[in-house]
Amino acid sequence: MASRPPDQGFNSRLFLGGAVLAAAGSALVSVGLALGSAALLDAARRWQRGTEMSPAQLARHAIGVAQVATTAGAQAWQAPMPDGRRRAAAGDGRIQPVS
Question: Region entry Disordered: which residue ranges (predicted)?
Answer without folding.
Answer: 76-99
